[in-house]
């Protein structure tokens, strides 16, 4: 095959197609020689630059060409910036034409953040086929429900046929089990046609344990920082400039090439970086500078309850990140509904002050000492607008990290779950549903993966050992009953049953959610644009009973009165204003067990 050296050292990751062929490139500073091996073709020596890049323009290659890189010791590896892995993480990479997909969303300009009603879903478990294409068939259902954004759990190529997605190793390649890259683009394109935004969960705090070859040829890890997964990704030591660029380009790639509306950054507290600027500051800065002319919403998961990256400018616009998942809100509502108090739940159970604070101010822990961690946690958050927080009562972690992956409706009284749902769905915070929650899905969502050999054994035994410290799993037989993450049946059990929504009990749940979301879109959303900080305040009415009031952007006063216990609370004065929920009459001076009442008063009427 003819080969031509590139005119300059490459600065982008992944193959690039032009009218002369395909430019292959790999950053492998620890390798003196790298060969590109074309499947069914030649093995061609690449040219190395002083910066550690190896590159070669191959004129006879094109879309569909499959290739690997051969290192000096003979090890053949996939492209770390592969766009498609048809034979999984250890197989060849495939050249993909980024311009081949025929987009029809040219008029799409995104949606403002305050309109977001987020629906978190796992592509593989959302439908029986478990593909991007199959998910398209459910978009009408989601639009009718009141969903305005879907958030895909991570899709980056992972080992095997099933995985939560947090073990991804090839960050630019949508997993082949879900379809080709153009199938993912088709899902985004179809969602935009329905007025639905699409967000993607991305993982930059670690790589999965199977299929990551980066350490064989590049300084991808930094032993000076440790994370729950081992040495941290190298964002601040020698060679980190290129590692950082790899991740930054990945974030831009998903937004630009796949027309996504935003990203959710997994466990950013585990991103270790002593640089200035921090990687988490550089990513939004580069995205803003990339020329993408539509709203881009960036969300954080951060166990530390930090607020600096949620800061707003003088116009109320996010300076870096749009919002953060509010675990504190989940915990106060979960413990109220379920009565659970093991582990960190003990910090929230029965604590009405934390309940009111999470509802009115965002975080429950705002620098307070947390006994479970034996240190302080969080920072004051009241100055942030309520829309800086994403609220939920279920998500993949809070369900799947339980031993059996039970949903809240499986162990909490229905009346209690309805109460906490009626609270979070109308909050000025941004609501997020977990797939199937809206119809009371009976399917669990246990942790699942598809590792093999010793790694599969280690994951299975590690999960059972993790739960051994809980009293209910002291019996070895109980631990043995925990689903094997690697079993195909564990994944099959997690798939939604779409025969359930029409059935009576599930239909009632679905109508309940639709009614609340209709009220949200009609009454709450129009009053959230440019809502400021210090908007919420609360008072304690009794144990797990609060009154919370927010001043909305148009000056209206939104009031929540909630009794999250099984005991009536008499002697309660009702606030003035028009009642939003419930639609049926309520007693004037008693908050009944599990009663939630929402009302609104226009500016000047409160």
TrEMBL record:
Matches recorded under SMART domains: Aamy
A single BP term in Gene Ontology: trehalose biosynthetic process
Domain Glycosyl hydrolase family 13 catalytic: 120-460
Annotated compartments: Cytoplasm
UniProt: substrate binding residues: 264-269, 327-331, 396-401
Highest taxon, organism lineage: Bacteria
Catalysed reactions, as listed in the record: hydrolysis of (1->4)-alpha-D-glucosidic linkage in 4-alpha-D-[(1->4)-alpha-D-glucanosyl]n trehalose to yield trehalose and (1->4)-alpha-D-glucan
GO cellular component, as recorded: cytoplasm
EC numbers on record: 3.2.1.141
Principal location listed in the UniProt entry: cytoplasm
Enzyme category, top tier: hydrolase
Active-site positions on this chain: 266 (nucleophile), 301 (proton donor)
Keyword field: Carbohydrate metabolism, Cytoplasm, Glycosidase, Hydrolase
Record-stated family: Belongs to the glycosyl hydrolase 13 family.
Name of the protein in its database record: Malto-oligosyltrehalose trehalohydrolase
Species of origin: Rhodopseudomonas palustris (strain BisB18)
